[in-house]
Amino acid sequence: MENIKNTCFVCKKDISSETSSVNPVVNMPVCSGCKGSEQEKAEEKIVLDSLADGFVCGCI
What is the helix (H) or strand (E) element at residue 46, kind and residue range? Predict the structure, then answer.
């Protein structure tokens, strides 16, 4: 199983803390190669859209 703290959420490659930073939108690590790319922005949207999958509010 991959360690989410050591994997770029965009390209899924192993990274170290010296070669990565944290994406402030999704609070996940991103490598220097993917940081600021269009792929990163697209993956942000996918990650945020998938947060609600399977969850339904029962208060309505």
Answer: helix 38-50
What is the residue extent of each domain of the chain?
A: 4-50
Report CA-CA distances (Å) from 6 to 12, 31, 58. Answer: 9, 10, 36
pLDDT recorded at residue 2: 55
- CB 39 within 8 Å of CB 15: no
Q: How confident is the model at residue 22 (pLDDT cuts 50, 70, 90)?
A: very high
H-helix or E-strand spanning residue 20? strand 20-23
CA 19-24-25 angle, to 5 degrees, is: 125
pTM of the complete model: 0.72
